[in-house]
Amino acid sequence: MNILLVSNMYPSQAFPSYGVFVQNTEAILKDEGFTVDKAVLRKKTGKLKKALGYAGHYANIVRKGLSGKHDAIYVHYAAHNAFPLLLLKKLKPSVRIVTNVHGSDVVPEVASQEKFQPYVKRLLKKSTLIITPSHYYERLVQEKYQAATPIRIFPSGGVNSEVFYPNREQNPQYMKHYQLDPAYRYFGYVGRMDVGKGWDHLLQAFALFLAAHPEEKDRTRLIMVGSGKDDDAFFAMKSQLGLDDSVIHFPLMKHKDLAAIYNLVELFIFPTTRKGESLGLVGLEAMACGTPILASRIGGILDYVEENENGWLTEPGNPEDLARGMAEYTALSDQQKQQVGQAAYQTAQQYDQKKIQSKLSSIFHELRLTK
Protein backbone atom coordinates (compact mmCIF):
# COMPACT_ATOMS: atom_id res chain seq x y z
CA MET A 1 0.00 0.00 0.00
CA ASN A 2 1.42 3.37 -1.04
CA ILE A 3 0.75 6.31 1.30
CA LEU A 4 1.38 10.00 0.67
CA LEU A 5 2.34 11.62 3.99
CA VAL A 6 1.37 15.30 4.11
CA SER A 7 2.53 17.74 6.79
CA ASN A 8 3.59 21.36 7.07
CA MET A 9 5.88 20.38 9.96
CA TYR A 10 8.82 18.03 9.42
CA PRO A 11 12.30 17.91 10.99
CA SER A 12 15.38 19.37 9.33
CA GLN A 13 19.02 19.54 10.32
CA ALA A 14 18.51 23.07 11.61
CA PHE A 15 15.27 22.22 13.46
CA PRO A 16 15.52 18.51 14.43
CA SER A 17 12.52 18.53 16.80
CA TYR A 18 10.13 20.38 14.50
CA GLY A 19 7.33 17.90 13.73
CA VAL A 20 9.47 14.97 14.87
CA PHE A 21 6.46 12.80 15.67
CA VAL A 22 5.38 13.09 12.02
CA GLN A 23 8.75 11.61 11.11
CA ASN A 24 8.18 8.92 13.76
CA THR A 25 4.84 8.09 12.12
CA GLU A 26 6.61 7.72 8.80
CA ALA A 27 9.11 5.30 10.37
CA ILE A 28 6.27 3.25 11.86
CA LEU A 29 4.47 2.93 8.54
CA LYS A 30 7.66 1.87 6.76
CA ASP A 31 8.43 -0.63 9.53
CA GLU A 32 4.95 -2.09 9.03
CA GLY A 33 5.63 -2.64 5.34
CA PHE A 34 3.94 0.39 3.79
CA THR A 35 5.51 2.47 1.04
CA VAL A 36 5.62 6.13 2.07
CA ASP A 37 5.99 9.15 -0.19
CA LYS A 38 6.10 12.64 1.31
CA ALA A 39 4.77 16.12 0.63
CA VAL A 40 6.18 17.95 3.65
CA LEU A 41 7.34 21.42 4.58
CA ARG A 42 10.38 22.01 6.77
CA LYS A 43 10.57 25.05 9.00
CA LYS A 44 11.18 28.38 7.30
CA THR A 45 12.17 31.64 8.96
CA GLY A 46 11.07 35.04 7.67
CA LYS A 47 7.75 36.02 6.10
CA LEU A 48 8.89 35.75 2.49
CA LYS A 49 10.51 32.33 2.94
CA LYS A 50 7.40 31.08 4.74
CA ALA A 51 5.09 32.34 2.01
CA LEU A 52 7.19 30.81 -0.75
CA GLY A 53 7.56 27.61 1.26
CA TYR A 54 3.80 27.19 1.67
CA ALA A 55 3.15 28.00 -1.99
CA GLY A 56 5.54 25.26 -3.07
CA HIS A 57 4.20 22.88 -0.43
CA TYR A 58 0.58 23.33 -1.54
CA ALA A 59 1.50 22.87 -5.19
CA ASN A 60 3.41 19.70 -4.28
CA ILE A 61 0.39 18.25 -2.45
CA VAL A 62 -1.90 18.79 -5.44
CA ARG A 63 0.68 17.55 -7.96
CA LYS A 64 1.45 14.36 -6.06
CA GLY A 65 -2.20 13.80 -5.17
CA LEU A 66 -3.20 13.93 -8.84
CA SER A 67 -0.49 11.48 -9.87
CA GLY A 68 -2.61 8.44 -8.98
CA LYS A 69 0.37 6.69 -7.39
CA HIS A 70 -1.02 6.63 -3.84
CA ASP A 71 -3.68 4.47 -2.20
CA ALA A 72 -4.27 7.04 0.54
CA ILE A 73 -3.16 10.48 1.68
CA TYR A 74 -2.28 10.73 5.37
CA VAL A 75 -2.27 14.33 6.61
CA HIS A 76 -1.02 15.81 9.86
CA TYR A 77 -2.02 19.34 10.91
CA ALA A 78 -5.36 19.63 9.19
CA ALA A 79 -5.67 23.39 9.68
CA HIS A 80 -2.63 24.31 7.60
CA ASN A 81 -3.06 21.63 4.92
CA ALA A 82 -6.84 21.64 4.41
CA PHE A 83 -6.97 24.13 1.54
CA PRO A 84 -4.84 22.19 -1.02
CA LEU A 85 -6.42 18.88 0.02
CA LEU A 86 -9.93 20.22 -0.50
CA LEU A 87 -8.85 21.48 -3.92
CA LEU A 88 -7.37 18.06 -4.67
CA LYS A 89 -10.57 16.33 -3.57
CA LYS A 90 -12.54 18.57 -5.94
CA LEU A 91 -10.22 17.82 -8.84
CA LYS A 92 -10.03 14.11 -8.05
CA PRO A 93 -13.00 12.94 -5.90
CA SER A 94 -11.69 9.35 -5.70
CA VAL A 95 -8.69 10.28 -3.56
CA ARG A 96 -8.94 8.94 -0.01
CA ILE A 97 -7.75 11.17 2.82
CA VAL A 98 -6.91 10.06 6.36
CA THR A 99 -6.76 13.14 8.58
CA ASN A 100 -4.86 13.14 11.87
CA VAL A 101 -6.14 16.04 13.98
CA HIS A 102 -4.40 17.33 17.08
CA GLY A 103 -3.62 20.48 19.02
CA SER A 104 -4.80 23.75 17.51
CA ASP A 105 -6.45 21.94 14.57
CA VAL A 106 -9.60 21.74 16.68
CA VAL A 107 -8.94 24.24 19.49
CA PRO A 108 -7.31 27.41 18.07
CA GLU A 109 -4.86 28.95 20.53
CA VAL A 110 -4.88 32.46 19.08
CA ALA A 111 -7.43 34.47 17.10
CA SER A 112 -5.48 34.17 13.84
CA GLN A 113 -6.01 30.39 13.85
CA GLU A 114 -9.79 30.71 13.86
CA LYS A 115 -9.81 31.44 10.12
CA PHE A 116 -8.81 27.83 9.40
CA GLN A 117 -11.80 26.29 11.18
CA PRO A 118 -14.24 26.23 8.19
CA TYR A 119 -11.57 24.40 6.16
CA VAL A 120 -10.91 21.90 8.95
CA LYS A 121 -14.62 21.14 9.22
CA ARG A 122 -14.92 20.58 5.46
CA LEU A 123 -11.78 18.43 5.35
CA LEU A 124 -12.99 16.17 8.16
CA LYS A 125 -16.30 15.65 6.36
CA LYS A 126 -14.46 14.83 3.11
CA SER A 127 -12.01 12.45 4.83
CA THR A 128 -12.36 8.68 4.67
CA LEU A 129 -11.04 8.27 8.23
CA ILE A 130 -10.10 10.60 11.10
CA ILE A 131 -7.31 9.79 13.57
CA THR A 132 -7.07 11.44 17.00
CA PRO A 133 -4.36 10.95 19.66
CA SER A 134 -6.66 10.28 22.61
CA HIS A 135 -10.19 9.46 23.71
CA TYR A 136 -10.50 13.04 24.98
CA TYR A 137 -9.76 14.44 21.56
CA GLU A 138 -12.09 11.96 19.88
CA ARG A 139 -14.96 13.31 21.98
CA LEU A 140 -13.91 16.89 21.23
CA VAL A 141 -13.95 16.28 17.46
CA GLN A 142 -17.32 14.56 17.60
CA GLU A 143 -18.89 17.35 19.65
CA LYS A 144 -17.46 20.23 17.62
CA TYR A 145 -17.83 19.01 14.05
CA GLN A 146 -20.42 16.24 14.25
CA ALA A 147 -18.82 14.65 11.20
CA ALA A 148 -20.06 11.23 10.13
CA THR A 149 -16.49 10.19 9.25
CA PRO A 150 -15.27 7.22 11.36
CA ILE A 151 -12.69 8.10 14.04
CA ARG A 152 -9.79 5.93 15.17
CA ILE A 153 -7.31 6.55 18.01
CA PHE A 154 -3.55 6.44 17.62
CA PRO A 155 -1.35 8.16 20.27
CA SER A 156 0.91 10.34 18.12
CA GLY A 157 3.57 7.77 17.32
CA GLY A 158 4.02 6.71 20.92
CA VAL A 159 7.20 6.78 22.99
CA ASN A 160 10.55 5.60 21.67
CA SER A 161 11.75 3.35 24.51
CA GLU A 162 15.18 3.10 22.90
CA VAL A 163 15.63 6.78 23.80
CA PHE A 164 13.36 7.31 26.81
CA TYR A 165 14.01 4.81 29.60
CA PRO A 166 15.18 4.83 33.26
CA ASN A 167 18.92 5.48 33.29
CA ARG A 168 19.68 7.10 36.63
CA GLU A 169 23.03 5.39 37.02
CA GLN A 170 24.21 7.92 34.43
CA ASN A 171 23.01 10.91 36.48
CA PRO A 172 26.50 11.83 37.79
CA GLN A 173 27.72 12.12 34.19
CA TYR A 174 24.57 14.04 33.21
CA MET A 175 25.09 16.43 36.12
CA LYS A 176 28.63 17.13 35.00
CA HIS A 177 27.65 17.52 31.35
CA TYR A 178 24.89 20.05 32.05
CA GLN A 179 26.91 21.75 34.80
CA LEU A 180 24.34 20.99 37.49
CA ASP A 181 25.11 20.85 41.18
CA PRO A 182 24.43 17.35 42.63
CA ALA A 183 23.77 18.96 46.02
CA TYR A 184 20.31 19.96 44.73
CA ARG A 185 17.31 17.97 43.67
CA TYR A 186 15.54 19.05 40.51
CA PHE A 187 12.00 19.47 39.26
CA GLY A 188 11.57 19.72 35.48
CA TYR A 189 9.55 21.28 32.67
CA VAL A 190 9.84 20.68 28.91
CA GLY A 191 7.81 22.74 26.47
CA ARG A 192 7.67 25.83 24.33
CA MET A 193 7.62 29.25 25.95
CA ASP A 194 4.33 30.03 24.22
CA VAL A 195 0.74 30.85 25.06
CA GLY A 196 -1.14 28.09 26.87
CA LYS A 197 1.92 26.06 27.81
CA GLY A 198 1.71 27.20 31.43
CA TRP A 199 5.35 28.23 31.85
CA ASP A 200 4.19 31.44 33.54
CA HIS A 201 1.97 29.60 36.01
CA LEU A 202 4.85 27.27 36.79
CA LEU A 203 7.21 30.15 37.58
CA GLN A 204 4.57 31.71 39.84
CA ALA A 205 3.92 28.36 41.51
CA PHE A 206 7.60 27.67 42.12
CA ALA A 207 8.01 31.12 43.69
CA LEU A 208 5.03 30.38 45.96
CA PHE A 209 6.45 26.96 46.83
CA LEU A 210 9.83 28.41 47.83
CA ALA A 211 8.19 31.24 49.81
CA ALA A 212 6.05 28.77 51.79
CA HIS A 213 8.97 26.38 52.30
CA PRO A 214 12.13 28.50 52.70
CA GLU A 215 14.24 25.42 53.38
CA GLU A 216 13.68 24.34 49.78
CA LYS A 217 15.65 27.33 48.47
CA ASP A 218 18.82 25.51 49.50
CA ARG A 219 17.84 22.08 48.19
CA THR A 220 15.48 22.35 45.16
CA ARG A 221 15.97 23.78 41.70
CA LEU A 222 13.65 23.91 38.67
CA ILE A 223 14.97 23.01 35.21
CA MET A 224 12.97 24.51 32.34
CA VAL A 225 13.73 23.36 28.80
CA GLY A 226 12.29 25.17 25.81
CA SER A 227 12.12 28.30 23.69
CA GLY A 228 9.35 30.19 21.94
CA LYS A 229 7.64 33.46 21.18
CA ASP A 230 7.44 34.32 24.89
CA ASP A 231 11.14 33.96 25.65
CA ASP A 232 11.54 37.62 26.63
CA ALA A 233 8.50 37.45 28.92
CA PHE A 234 9.84 34.25 30.47
CA PHE A 235 13.22 35.73 31.36
CA ALA A 236 11.60 38.93 32.64
CA MET A 237 9.18 37.05 34.91
CA LYS A 238 11.95 34.78 36.18
CA SER A 239 13.90 37.84 37.33
CA GLN A 240 10.86 39.68 38.71
CA LEU A 241 9.99 36.68 40.88
CA GLY A 242 13.54 36.43 42.20
CA LEU A 243 14.11 33.03 40.60
CA ASP A 244 17.29 33.68 38.62
CA ASP A 245 19.28 31.45 41.00
CA SER A 246 16.54 28.84 41.43
CA VAL A 247 15.44 28.25 37.82
CA ILE A 248 17.87 26.79 35.29
CA HIS A 249 16.96 27.28 31.65
CA PHE A 250 18.04 25.29 28.61
CA PRO A 251 16.92 26.04 25.03
CA LEU A 252 15.32 23.38 22.83
CA MET A 253 17.07 20.01 23.09
CA LYS A 254 17.40 16.87 21.01
CA HIS A 255 15.66 13.74 22.27
CA LYS A 256 18.75 12.14 23.79
CA ASP A 257 19.30 15.29 25.87
CA LEU A 258 15.65 15.38 26.91
CA ALA A 259 15.94 11.78 28.08
CA ALA A 260 18.85 12.83 30.28
CA ILE A 261 16.83 15.69 31.77
CA TYR A 262 13.84 13.40 32.44
CA ASN A 263 16.18 11.08 34.36
CA LEU A 264 17.79 13.94 36.28
CA VAL A 265 14.54 15.42 37.59
CA GLU A 266 12.63 13.91 40.49
CA LEU A 267 9.30 15.35 39.38
CA PHE A 268 8.15 16.35 35.90
CA ILE A 269 5.70 19.26 35.85
CA PHE A 270 3.26 19.66 32.96
CA PRO A 271 1.28 22.89 33.62
CA THR A 272 -0.50 23.28 30.27
CA THR A 273 -3.80 25.15 30.09
CA ARG A 274 -4.52 24.18 26.48
CA LYS A 275 -7.87 22.53 25.84
CA GLY A 276 -6.25 21.40 22.61
CA GLU A 277 -3.61 19.36 24.48
CA SER A 278 -4.55 16.31 22.46
CA LEU A 279 -2.15 13.89 24.21
CA GLY A 280 0.88 15.51 25.81
CA LEU A 281 3.73 13.31 24.62
CA VAL A 282 6.34 15.00 26.84
CA GLY A 283 4.46 13.72 29.88
CA LEU A 284 4.63 10.16 28.61
CA GLU A 285 8.31 10.52 27.72
CA ALA A 286 9.09 11.60 31.28
CA MET A 287 7.03 8.73 32.68
CA ALA A 288 8.90 6.30 30.41
CA CYS A 289 12.04 7.38 32.28
CA GLY A 290 10.36 6.41 35.57
CA THR A 291 9.67 10.01 36.58
CA PRO A 292 6.38 10.89 38.34
CA ILE A 293 4.32 13.66 36.77
CA LEU A 294 2.46 16.63 38.23
CA ALA A 295 0.12 17.76 35.47
CA SER A 296 -2.90 19.87 34.67
CA ARG A 297 -6.27 18.17 34.85
CA ILE A 298 -6.98 18.78 31.17
CA GLY A 299 -6.93 17.32 27.68
CA GLY A 300 -5.34 14.06 26.64
CA ILE A 301 -3.33 13.98 29.88
CA LEU A 302 -6.44 12.50 31.48
CA ASP A 303 -6.03 9.43 29.27
CA TYR A 304 -2.89 8.36 31.12
CA VAL A 305 -2.42 10.15 34.47
CA GLU A 306 -4.17 8.50 37.39
CA GLU A 307 -4.32 10.59 40.55
CA ASN A 308 -2.00 9.28 43.33
CA GLU A 309 -1.15 6.23 41.24
CA ASN A 310 1.34 7.30 38.55
CA GLY A 311 1.21 11.06 39.16
CA TRP A 312 -0.91 13.95 40.37
CA LEU A 313 -3.36 16.40 38.79
CA THR A 314 -3.86 20.09 39.47
CA GLU A 315 -6.31 22.76 38.36
CA PRO A 316 -5.15 24.27 35.04
CA GLY A 317 -3.92 27.85 35.33
CA ASN A 318 -3.87 27.82 39.14
CA PRO A 319 -0.36 28.52 40.53
CA GLU A 320 -1.52 28.01 44.11
CA ASP A 321 -2.76 24.51 43.33
CA LEU A 322 0.44 23.75 41.45
CA ALA A 323 2.52 24.91 44.43
CA ARG A 324 0.39 22.72 46.68
CA GLY A 325 1.17 19.74 44.45
CA MET A 326 4.90 20.39 44.73
CA ALA A 327 4.64 20.60 48.51
CA GLU A 328 2.66 17.36 48.72
CA TYR A 329 5.24 15.62 46.57
CA THR A 330 8.12 16.74 48.81
CA ALA A 331 6.26 15.41 51.86
CA LEU A 332 6.18 11.86 50.48
CA SER A 333 8.60 9.20 51.66
CA ASP A 334 11.28 7.93 49.28
CA GLN A 335 9.39 4.65 49.04
CA GLN A 336 6.15 6.40 48.05
CA LYS A 337 7.97 8.42 45.38
CA GLN A 338 9.56 5.26 43.99
CA GLN A 339 6.19 3.50 43.86
CA VAL A 340 4.61 6.34 41.87
CA GLY A 341 7.66 6.47 39.60
CA GLN A 342 7.40 2.76 38.91
CA ALA A 343 3.68 3.08 38.17
CA ALA A 344 4.48 5.96 35.78
CA TYR A 345 6.97 3.75 33.97
CA GLN A 346 4.46 0.90 33.66
CA THR A 347 1.84 3.26 32.21
CA ALA A 348 4.28 4.63 29.64
CA GLN A 349 5.04 1.10 28.44
CA GLN A 350 1.48 0.92 27.13
CA TYR A 351 2.45 3.71 24.71
CA ASP A 352 5.74 2.17 23.60
CA GLN A 353 6.27 2.85 19.91
CA LYS A 354 6.95 -0.78 19.04
CA LYS A 355 3.84 -1.95 20.91
CA ILE A 356 1.40 0.52 19.41
CA GLN A 357 2.65 0.72 15.83
CA SER A 358 0.38 -2.16 14.84
CA LYS A 359 -2.58 0.11 15.70
CA LEU A 360 -1.64 2.48 12.92
CA SER A 361 -1.04 -0.42 10.58
CA SER A 362 -4.49 -1.83 11.31
CA ILE A 363 -6.10 1.55 10.54
CA PHE A 364 -4.60 1.57 7.04
CA HIS A 365 -5.34 -2.11 6.49
CA GLU A 366 -8.97 -1.31 7.37
CA LEU A 367 -8.83 1.40 4.75
CA ARG A 368 -7.63 -1.11 2.17
CA LEU A 369 -10.58 -3.40 2.93
CA THR A 370 -13.04 -0.54 2.30
CA LYS A 371 -11.59 0.24 -1.14
In short:
With 371 residues, the protein is α/β, with parallel strands linked by helices. The protein has 13 helices and twelve strands.
Overall, the morphology is globular
Q: Gap between N and C termini, in Å?
A: 12 Å
Q: Main beta sheet: strand number and arrangement?
A: 6 strands, parallel
**Residue windows where pLDDT falls under 50 for at least 5 positions:** none
Strand order of the largest sheet: 2-1-3-4-5-6
- How many helices in DSSP terms? 13
Protein name: Glycosyltransferase family 4 protein
Organism: Planococcus salinus
Domain Glycosyltransferase subfamily 4-like N-terminal: 38-157
InterPro entries: Glyco_trans_1, Glyco_trans_4-like_N, Glycosyltransferase_grp1
Polypeptide structure, described:
- The protein has 13 helices and 12 strands.
- It has 371 residues and is an alpha/beta fold.
- It folds into 2 domains: 174 residues, Glycogen Phosphorylase B (Rossmann fold), CATH 3.40.50; 182 residues, Glycogen Phosphorylase B (Rossmann fold, 3-Layer(aba) Sandwich).
- The strands form 2 sheets. The chain has a 6-stranded parallel sheet with strand order 2-1-3-4-5-6, with helices on both faces. A 6-stranded parallel sheet has the order 9-8-7-10-11-12, sandwiched between helices.
- Helix 7 links the parallel strand 7 and strand 8.
- The model has no long low-confidence stretch (mean pLDDT 94).
